Amino acid sequence: MEVSGSHYGDYHRLPDYEEEDSPPEDEKELLVHVTEGLKDSWHHIKNLDNFFTKIYHFHQKNGFACMMLSDIFELVQFLFVVTFTTFLFCCVEYDVLFANRPVNHTHPGGGALPERNKVTLPDAILPTQQCAQRIRSSGWIIFLLVMAATFWVYRLVKVLCSLLGYWEIRTFYTKALKIPSDELCNCSWQEVQARLISLQREQPMCVHKRELSELDIHHRVLRFKNYLVAMVNKALLPVRFRLPLLGEAVFLTQGLKYNLELLFFWGPGSLFQGKWSLQPQYKRAGARLELARRLGRGMVLLGLANLLLCPFILVWQVLYAFFSYTEVLKREPGSLGARRWSLFGRLYLRHFNELDHELQARLSRGYKPASKYMNSFASPLLALLARNVCFFAGSLLAVLIALTVYDEDVLTVQHILTAITLLGVIVTIARSFIPDEHLVWCPEQLLQCVLAHIHYMPDHWQGNAHKAETREELAQLFQYKAVFILEELLSPIVTPFLLIFALRAKALDIIDFFRNFSVEVVGVGDICSFAQLDIRNHGNPQWLSQGRTEASVYQQAENGKTELSLVHFAITNPRWQPPPESSLFIGHLKEKVQQDAAHAPPAQRLLAEAPLGASFLSDEGPCTVVSPGDGGGSHLWGPEPPFPSNRLSLPAAGGPPGQCPGSGKWGPGVPGREAALWAAGQRSRCSRQHPGLPLLLAAAPAGRERRLPERQHPPRRQVGRGETWLVWGPGARMAGQAQDCLAPVL
User: Fold this and answer.
1) Any idea where the domains of the chain sit in the sequence?
2) pLDDT, tens digit, 9 for 90 and up, residues 650-662
3) Which of 536, 576, 596, 725 sits a CA distance of 20 to 30 A from 699?
């Protein structure tokens, strides 16, 4: 794709595009059978986006039974929340429950209930007639119940239709792909994808192309997600704000993301038609101002609709959060102090064409390193206060517990359980501010451990891991669970104003983005041009040699996302045949590594001294590093590894390649290769000692699942007795000193 240097260039098609190959505009169905001969034949599937997406979700959600039960329980949960909330508001006599007044209900037999000292739960529950009378007397409750019932019936119809689709996909798995239901959990997505590609050759599902590639399938499954990833990468979405007293904050919630998808992709008046083609008027630069005004009006209308529905959505959010987190908070008060990857972080850190399970596996591997880095920062003042709070609150709690153990009648004292619970929560929260007494503060190494998995970091983090600003910026990607819950609760209130004011100001830039960064691919439709992994048109000069890219600053993906996404896709899809430019890029990368490997110091010393070693030796790793040929005997660096944890499995000579848990459901186990790539790569880039991408080699033991195309294979370098490749990249910095980075690669 070629885009003019101006932001206002016209939409372009790929050179090999032919008009007759575009999907018909009126094709709306999910699956069309042409039952010529065999009944179980699938020909000319019109909406391949939905079809491939359903195939992917069917695999990731473990088949028909799990998906069906998940949808049914979702309906039951909604029904339970509505009915139980109505019961609590209308059918419980709280004055009786709290013993503020005596029981005055009429006994079903006609007489009054006998007087007694203790109040039971049935005493506080109103009879059915009184409960119904309370409900009928409240117009608001009736209105809310009618709305809830309407929504539930809508969801019920949708679930029933989905069940038919699930069964259709189940039939496709068993008959077309030859994967029985009981084997689905043991089958990787790469195997399913390979069978899809093979099936296309036998009976064409897509009539617009004879051959399907892995990239075609990813383009259809991730069409809209790639656009969102690109918009976050280009800082197009207004999600960063500077707040008084709080500084810079990021606000992106599930509600806001849903509204963005509704506005851009599949809602009424969206930019796409047929869910795979950008509307023709958005492809022309001449109408950009009018289209921006139209999009701005749509944003205002959507914001007003959100404002109108705000009370109902807010009530639902509060109720759902209450029922979901109250028990967890009581059982584990510190759980809200745990962290999770934010929604913004998931979009910021996501590669182009990275499937959900691949992203989840990568971020899960980075969870513990990120937690260790964030927890390594401690305030001495807060720690001092927390120790004293723990002492005083713990003393009171110990006395109350001792009295309860001595005589259980103490529990009957008013508010004694409340006091014990609150004191326990206070002690738990205070302890979270007390650092581990055995903690060794090494922020640079910890941040490199994080980088080995998340793959992206701003340049100004380099050498500044010890600063609070770096920690605060990482906290935008790796937020507290309590912050996540608070943002979701505030989302119904904040989202309308973001749509009406902040997003509307970006309407013209958004129109230009979709025109300049959309490309029409034969047999696929309109996709985000960044998803083509075209380093010439979207490469970053900081990651490539001179003349390897023609992209202007506007066209470049930030932080080397195009290059990293290309290598990630080549690693996770080893059978994929890259285009010539990408093949040259990967081949050049491997040649440079091979040249440097010829002058490599002994592997044992490099492994022991490599600064990147810490990122491979954090305690989330499930495997062990063994010396080649030992079959699991001794460690590569001797009897004791220099770091106590994350260990990558190296294959013994002639033996099967070691796999981590990612290699089953999650596809090929490649955490080691990826970690070597991104950690060495980012540091090499930031140090500016090399104009090209970091020198690294995606090594693959014997086996088709882990090989790149044959034409890209250099001769193997043998280390010890096992066929294991080791890679490193000069230019990596740790504590201000340039060192070589070495990492074992699966």
Assistant:
1) 1-23+214-349+479-532, 29-91+126-207, 379-434, 552-744
2) 333 333 333 333 3
3) 536
